[in-house]
Amino acid sequence: MSVHRQFMFCVLAVLLSGGSMTAARAENLLKPGDRMAICGDSITEQKNYSVIIEDYLLMCQPVSNLQAAQFGWGGETTWGFAPRMGNDVLWTKPTVASVNYGMNDGGYGPVQEERINNYRTKTIDIIQQFKTAGVRTIIITGPGAVDADAYHHGKKDAELYNKTLAAYGEAARQVANENGAIFADMHGTMVQAMEKFKARHPDKSFVGNDGIHPENVGHMVMAYTILKALGCDGDIGTITVDLAANKADATAGHKVLSADGGKVEMESIRYPFCLGNDPLDALGQRAALSLVPFNEELNRFKLVVKSGTAKKYHVTFGAETRDFDAAQLAAGINLTQEFIKSPFEDSFRKVDNLIHAQQDFETLLTKQWLHNQSAWTQDYPTAADAFKQLAESGKQSDQSLRTAVSAAVVPVKYTITITPAE
């Protein structure tokens, strides 16, 4: 039985029974056991950048034992989120939060002082509510950007609205700096990435068919922006092979099972991030690598090969083989940059699919059950206990899903071979 059907069955049973982008490292901003709340409007409800972030936190493991949940709501503003967050979000007891609003706050027109002042006031309110609830690290991103070539109101209005969004980004920066939060310049990063994208693909939209909701490539840029703001240093691990000594070593999260004649058997519980396998997909995740330094700054899984006697070597990682000079290998290569098809891919996708299912359920739980509980209770006071049981059942189901996701991150065994290319 699917999770959604299980939850609906529980519902019926209850009712029928009458009852500034920081340079700080991740260990300074993220702590083992942290729970992250990813909050925003319909762009967050797309469950794309939010899934990427949860993928990264659970599998790349900047620190251990992380969890995440998303709370996107289409059409939402800061003044829509602030009054509902106590009921709909804080029950997860987050210790870290990202807040991505402003796209709707701006009203899709020129800057209006009343609206932007309201945005400032409500963003401060959101920060204070999170702090009162024990949230230690709060990322305020400000809004993203619209694509002038696809914006449904036309190019002229898109250019005007990007100026409005830039103003909201500056307001977010000021509020974050003055209220103990961390600012991530989502608008500036998205604009720069979009300019690079348009230079390569002038006929495509970086931000979806409506010019507002990003394609996969745009969501990858958004996730990069927030992960950098969280201080993630991107050091996934290093495997060092000494060919002369016939041995290998690895950093934490990776275990050398055997090393013999350039063949190294490995087991890793810490995964490098696996992007899509199609390098020609201009709108896919991998396309973001030409727009932001994701692999260089957030996804370094290094292989260092010492004491080689040949000038060049074949290196096989998973199903791919590539050639490298001995000097390159001695300096270290980033496996995530050099190889497209990773031996972690299958395991990564299994966890990613579970995260998608978890976040889909969180949208159902938040928008249909938790948010409506108070109104239902007012309308049907005799069923108050049933509504409460309904909400608690949903919360337990969501926690079970997040626990299952964490449990699905299991050790991956793979082989690296290094042989002379002469």
The sequence of SSEs as H and E is HHEHHEHHEHEHEHHEEEEHEEEHEHHHHE
- How many structural domains can be distinguished in the coordinates? 2
Number of DSSP-assigned strands? 14
Count up the helices.
Answer: 16
Share of helix among residues?
40-55%
Which CATH-level-2 architecture of the largest domain? 3-Layer(aba) Sandwich
Structural class: alpha/beta
**Taking Cα atoms only, what radius of gyration do you get, to the nearest Å?**
23 Å
Quick one: biggest sheet?
5 strands, parallel
Under CATH at level 1, the class of the largest domain stands as Alpha Beta
CATH topology of the largest domain: Rossmann fold
Identify the overall geometry: globular
Which strand order do you get reading across the main beta sheet?
2-1-3-4-5
β-strand percent reads 15-25%
Uncertain segments are: 1-24
- Mean of the pLDDT scores? 92
- Tell me the distance between the termini: 57 Å
CATH superfamily of the largest domain: SGNH hydrolase
Please sum up the structure shown.
The protein has 422 residues and is of the alpha/beta class. 44% of the residues lie in helices and 18% in strands. It folds into 2 domains: 3-233 and 345-407, SGNH hydrolase (Rossmann fold, 3-Layer(aba) Sandwich), CATH 3.40.50; 236-342 and 413-420, no CATH class.
